[in-house]
Amino acid sequence: xDKKKSCKEFIVYLKYFMLFVISINFLIFFxxxxxxxxxxxxxRTEMRNKIKxxxxxxxxxxxxxxxxxxxxxxxxxxxxxxxxxxxxxxTILKSSCYDCHSNETVWPLYSYIAPVSWLVANDVKEGRxxxxxxxxxxxxxxxxxxxxxxxxxxILEGKMPMPIYTYIHQDAKLTDLQKSxxxxxxxxxNLNAAAE
Length: 196
Ligand code: HEC
Description:
Elements: H1 2-31, H2 33-36, H3 43-65, H4 87-96, H5 98-101, H6 116-130, H7 141-156, H8 163-168, H9 176-195
Helix pairs in contact: 1-3, 4-9, 7-9
């Protein structure tokens, strides 16, 4: 909780800092004689000014998009809906899948900075819609079986966790042992269901 708060505070400071840097750049840029004076100045200066203006415009754009609201909330935790699995399985799911497939997403610092924040929020939204381990228990058996098959497939094909995610979260990469633990467990729930 505290960590999240300090994270948010940091972002607010970052935004003020950016505003400061942009303002200084504006002042410097428009105080240059060669921008205001109508007289002759070289092609080279003209080119440089264009580049500088481009950078300022880009900075302003990045600054402005920080204020586009991004949905980054975790729905209320409900223990009854959570998947019941062995400790091993739960630990792996928590470290490799929960950020996108549960209501307990740990939002990283970069998820507060647009435009990256838009991508992250979208992945979490879609990830939860496809598969939510915080709501697994509320799924019908048929849906559980279908999802279990999909999970095994995604793991075997190395598609999940998403590579863009494991690139940053190296510890979320599944080892061969972790893969087999997950695959065994998600196969076993299907067998249990068949026996019922
Ligand atoms: C960075 C976010 C992220 C992480 C981490 C992640 N997923 Fe996903 N997952 C998604 C998104 C987004 C989708 C929906 C779009 C798609 O299918 O690519 C998805 C879809 C799925 C699907 C449904 C695929 C289908 O057939 O449509 C399964 C199953 C799945 N993930 C399993 C897992 C498992 C198991 C883990 C952990 C080992 C995991 N995911 C980790 C983001 C993530």
